[in-house]
Amino acid sequence: MNNKPKAIVFFDLDGTLLTSDIQVADSTVAALDKLRANHIIPIMATGRSAFEVKHIMHRTGIDSIVGMNGQSVIYQGKSIFTNNIDPQIIDRMLEFSRSHTGIPLAFYNDHLMRISQSGEAAKKFYDYLKQAIPQVDDKIHHHKPIQMLLLLCENGEQIYQDFFPELTFIRNTPYCVDIFNTGGSKAFGIDKLLQNANLYGIPTYAFGDGLNDIEMFEMVDHPIAMANAVAPLKELAQLITADNNHDGIAKGLQQLGLI
């Protein structure tokens, strides 16, 4: 008996699955229920970590996530892949920040978030996400694996790109830049998921709105952009649905005939 799903749909979170006030619309929850009833798997594909979106996973019933821009993959509640950053590289970056820029860092894995120092930059970013500011611990990477770092800044990341070619830097909000191992992306994580969960050959869809969704759009069979998406993403889209505040997920799934 073939228990493989009919299709897989990957959803970005901020600006896509979530409304502008960081909520999941009732129409989206209902659409996801219909999707599962049709034997189609919804999976989050986000710059965020599983730890910080537990409440969203509970609200939506989604138990699989390509997190931290593909640096961690959880499928049906089980971790199947992580891509850790070398602690020595993190030490170098901390020292570079202290001596050159003063920009604080945040440290992420599937179970925790920490910051290198408190201050206005951290407050702006976590207020923007409507999250509590994490604990300060600039040694966390010495005893816990870290899959993603953040530069908590509104500008100034270019100098880091010049000094740390082994890392990828993507601005994900006005107040932070995501950092992970070069070669990593949502597409990279999706490939690891399809490989490790034996899901190759199944039709894939993706909804997104941001620059960190470009590789994902180039990889899946059917890319769908939100109306609020950046222009480069819309150019890659098969379909442009309504925005994230006006039932874009439900409307897009309906137009695709998935629900």
UniProtKB/TrEMBL annotation:
Pfam families: Hydrolase_3. One of its GO terms (cellular component) is cytosol. InterPro entries: Cof, HAD-like_sf, HAD-SF_hydro_IIB, HAD_sf. SUPFAM superfamilies: HAD-like. GO terms for molecular function: magnesium ion binding; phosphatase activity. Keywords: Hydrolase. This is Putative hydrolase of the HAD superfamily. It comes from Frischella perrara.
